[in-house]
Amino acid sequence: MVCKPESHTTLYEWLAGVEAAGDLQQFTIRRWTGRFHTVHTYRYASEVPLREGEDAVWVNWCELTITKETDGTILYRNAFATQHHLDHTSGESVVQAGRTRWKIENEHHNTLKTKGYHLEHHYGHGKQHLSAVLLTLHLIAFLFHTVLGWVDPKYHVLRQTLAARQTFFHDLQALTRYLLFDSWDHLLNFMLQGLEIAMSPDAS
User: Fold this and answer.
1) Quick count: other Cβ atoms within 10 Å of Cβ 200?
2) pLDDT at 120 over 60
């Protein structure tokens, strides 16, 4: 998981001590982007406390800083806490996993907030369990829409044609407000016909 100085002050105090003692491990990798060379600097330390207290979780910490080789401009910097063993061999793959997880998380949340699901609008409403129920329904809807994109050819084609999720959702809302469809397949066929999209006969 991502581990930032402002949210994990105790951990970074420990890291400062580890660095002062000369025990903070580091290695660099030089890479070509297609336009210029970059330097990937990895720093890591093992068995540091995630927070203060006797019950603190002890983790391994790693950081990646990407700089331009020519002038040292910082292009990227982030750090991660993990339970995986870190060394000069595993550090790169652990950081890559952390970056991938962060990217998925950001894109997932961004989709739910800005692409037609209105997650932020509902968050925190009601008493007791209402906000948790609304969040769960959002996640289930997002899951089913993702699966449909994989397994339903008609849905997949329509989503590609109506690329913006908001457009697709608005079309569904307008159609189902004024028209009654026999089935989900009937609705998709109606949309395909209206958009003049021809599907192969075996698409179902």
Assistant:
1) 7
2) yes
